[in-house]
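Entry 14. Structure prediction run on the chain below.
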Amino acid sequence: MDHRVLFLRTLQDIEERSKSLDPYVILGVSALVRKLFLEKHSLVDSVNQHYRQKLKFRVGAGLAPDANSFPPGSFWSQQDSLDPETSPPGIPTLELGRKEFFQHVVVVTSGHAHTLKEVIRYVAHVSGGVHLGTPENIKEQALHSIDQLFLVGGHSMAIRQLLAVSRVIVKTLEPLKLAVASDLKI
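Output returned:
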């Protein structure tokens, strides 16, 4: 399959999954985001090699609290405020490059700050987005403990976070999607 078609179909899949209420459907976003951005030969890099578009992720600032100040069993999660369109009024926005986006802290648990990349990998490798596994270190165990205890909007906290991640990614990749679709005459 042409990598550009694969890119368009992957983006379409993420967009459709971001509208779902089914946790199984949302879980699959982690595998798609991995394919787009986090693999050694990512799909976005492969496609954008030709188009050379500067990707800027517009996110809600999300003032993550100091991880060390959280008592055991408590947590903070950015959730919908990651997406400026669903964040509460008055939350400032940031424009982040790719590296900064995936290093953005979206969850704080007892003594641990978890980046977007870590949450995506957790959902992919522990929750079953790619394969079902067990937490591999203390940081993942802290995330897992909170993720198993609390529901946000009817979903585990980590899976629920993927909804806002999906929306931000779809909006960020829209110009690249349009350029590819134009070249393919789709």
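Strands lie at 57-60, 75-77, 93-96, 105-109, 112-115, 151-152, 155-156.
Filed with the rest of this week's runs.
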